[in-house]
UniProtKB/TrEMBL annotation:
This is ABC transporter ATP-binding protein. It holds the Pfam family BCA_ABC_TP_C. SMART domains: AAA. It comes from Paenisporosarcina antarctica. InterPro entries: AAA+_ATPase (IPR003593), ABC_AA/LPS_Transport (IPR051120), ABC_transporter-like_ATP-bd (IPR003439), ABC_transporter-like_CS (IPR017871), BCA_ABC_TP_C (IPR032823), P-loop_NTPase (IPR027417). Keywords: ATP-binding, Nucleotide-binding, Transport. It comes from the Bacteria. The keyword 4Fe-4S does not apply. One of its GO terms (molecular function) is ATP binding. PANTHER family: ABC TRANSPORTER ATP-BINDING PROTEIN (PTHR45772:SF3), CONSERVED COMPONENT OF ABC TRANSPORTER FOR NATURAL AMINO ACIDS-RELATED (PTHR45772). Residues 5-248 form the ABC transporter domain. The keyword Transport applies. Transmembrane segments: none annotated. PROSITE patterns: ABC_TRANSPORTER_1 (PS00211), ABC_TRANSPORTER_2 (PS50893).
Length: 257
């Protein structure tokens, strides 16, 4: 399997605190990996280092064997390393379709003046509509983004990330802040993207059922270090992970199945 993303001794210190501590990580292409760990374990900081929002104190990030350290997060996205948009990146006063169309347009590097040509405009809209279909938001395409529910906004962020057509998707807690009823819909969206088979997906999540169901592998962080990395079954059975983090979850899971 080809490694698409790799870190070597990736480390960041905030004052005296080491939030990410010499992480060596390898991500095979088109795989689905989840990152779990207790609050403060360093998961989001690890993502920020990969996406370029933070510079490491030490260590390297490689995307397709290219050292990413000198590249900004915008440059990394252009190269194919994409981080999900935060709700704050969505234009609240534009429609759902317009938001996705802008993301498609930015990927295709088409400036506003160039889309006066109607066929160009139509092809951008078609691509945006396809993505809205994929994330099950097509019926809301004319709704103003600020009117969407929280769960729908998260789906919009995913559509905007897909519009950039990056090979790697970094999804940081896509179900955060959602009501219980909204969770299955986002799970379905992520499953559909996985089933297309052409994206490498790295997911931070706390919802164990979701992680066990979707992941090819799971990395467990604890105090900024990798505590374990393996298949869902290996992680659930790992005694160290049990003691440090999962507690009785594995027994509960067995009892349920
Ligand atoms: N910019 C910062 N300045 C100082 N400390 C920071 C900064 N960012 C993160 N930290 C600290 O680094 C540690 C790791 O934080 P991080 O947010 O990465 O954890 P996490 O595993 O994502 O947690 P959660 O599950 O709660 O989101 C925490 O102790 C946090 O307080």
């Amino acid at each position: 399997m080809t490694t698409i993303l790799k870190t070597e001794n990736l480390t960041i210190r905030f004052g005296g605190h080491i939030a990410v501590d010499h992480i060596n990580f390898e991500m095979p292409e088109n795989q689905f990996k989840s990152i779990i760990g207790p609050n403060g374990a360093g998961k989001t900081t690890f993502f920020n280092l990969i996406s370029g929002e933070l510079k490491p104190t030490e260590g390297k990030v490689y995307f397709k064997d290219e050292d990413m350290i000198r590249f900004s997060s915008v440059d990394r996205t252009r190269k194919g390393l994409g981080r999900s948009f935060q709700i704050t990146n969505v234009f609240p006063n534009l429609s759902v379709l317009e938001n996705v169309r802008i993301a498609v347009q930015s990927k295709e590097k088409i400036r506003y003046q160039m889309i006066r040509h109607i066929s160009k405009y139509t092809s951008l809209s078609q691509k945006a509509e396809e993505l809205l279909g994929l994330v099950r938001l097509y019926s809301k395409k004319h709704v103003i983004a600020s009117q969407l529910s929280h769960g729908e906004k998260r789906k919009l962020e995913i559509a905007m990330l897909l519009a950039l057509d990056t090979e790697v998707l970094l999804l940081d807690e896509p179900t955060a802040g959602m009501s219980l009823e909204e969770v299955p819909a986002i799970l379905e969206v992520i499953r559909r993207i996985k089933e297309q088979g052409n994206k490498t997906i790295l997911l931070i999540e706390h919802k164990m059922d979701m992680i066990l169901d979707l992941s090819d592998s799971i990395m467990v962080l604890f105090n900024g270090k990798v505590l374990a990395d393996g298949t869902p079954i290996e992680i659930m059975q790992n005694e160290m992970v049990q003691n440090a983090y999962l507690g009785g979850l594995y027994d509960e899971h067995i009892a349920k199945s």
